[in-house]
Automatic annotation (TrEMBL):
<dbReference type="InterPro" id="IPR013325">
    <property type="entry name" value="RNA_pol_sigma_r2"/>
</dbReference>
<feature type="domain" description="RNA polymerase sigma factor 70 region 4 type 2">
    <location>
        <begin position="102"/>
        <end position="154"/>
    </location>
</feature>
<dbReference type="InterPro" id="IPR014284">
    <property type="entry name" value="RNA_pol_sigma-70_dom"/>
</dbReference>
<dbReference type="Pfam" id="PF08281">
    <property type="entry name" value="Sigma70_r4_2"/>
</dbReference>
<comment type="similarity">
    <text>Belongs to the sigma-70 factor family. ECF subfamily.</text>
</comment>
<dbReference type="GO" id="GO:0016987">
    <property type="term" value="F:sigma factor activity"/>
</dbReference>
<dbReference type="InterPro" id="IPR013324">
    <property type="entry name" value="RNA_pol_sigma_r3/r4-like"/>
</dbReference>
<protein>
    <submittedName>
        <fullName>FIG006045: Sigma factor, ECF subfamily</fullName>
    </submittedName>
</protein>
<dbReference type="Pfam" id="PF04542">
    <property type="entry name" value="Sigma70_r2"/>
</dbReference>
<dbReference type="InterPro" id="IPR039425">
    <property type="entry name" value="RNA_pol_sigma-70-like"/>
</dbReference>
<keyword id="KW-0805">Transcription regulation</keyword>
<feature type="domain" description="RNA polymerase sigma-70 region 2">
    <location>
        <begin position="1"/>
        <end position="66"/>
    </location>
</feature>
<dbReference type="GO" id="GO:0006352">
    <property type="term" value="P:DNA-templated transcription initiation"/>
</dbReference>
<dbReference type="InterPro" id="IPR036388">
    <property type="entry name" value="WH-like_DNA-bd_sf"/>
</dbReference>
<dbReference type="InterPro" id="IPR007627">
    <property type="entry name" value="RNA_pol_sigma70_r2"/>
</dbReference>
<keyword id="KW-0804">Transcription</keyword>
<dbReference type="GO" id="GO:0003677">
    <property type="term" value="F:DNA binding"/>
</dbReference>
Amino acid sequence: MIARYYKDLLNFCTRRVKDRDKAADLAQESYARVLAMQQAGQAILEPVALLKTVAMRAEIDMHRRAAIRQHDDIDALDESHQIAGPRHLQPEEAYAASQAMQAYLDTIDALPERCREAFRMHLFDDLTNQEIAERLGVTVGMVNQYIRRGKLACAARRKALGHDD
């Protein structure tokens, strides 16, 4: 499994964090978590989607750890030398990002099975609509409807979260 999906996962992580070293760390952490799940007896039906989902969650954990480390380092400084860190590394922001990510994942999980499968393949596996149609045994038009339904559900969740800028 490692050699088969590593390059795609590394590219996915690199696009997310914009740093090849951090991306390699995320990919390694993702594989470790998925391997632990596999060894615990959990069936893995869509390894690419699972690896990418685990990578996104590992990224959130990475931001949390960075925020905690930054907080610990700031406590050692006297108040006159403390500076505010980047907004995305603040604990509140990391927590909000984690909650938003979970809300989107829950939204996707709530889609009907075929729609959810098509949307995940589109979103996480970067498959073309033709490839998705072939895998699911449906028409490209049906895949378009599934993807549109997934996007509308995520847009509604985005609006409900107040992120409709």
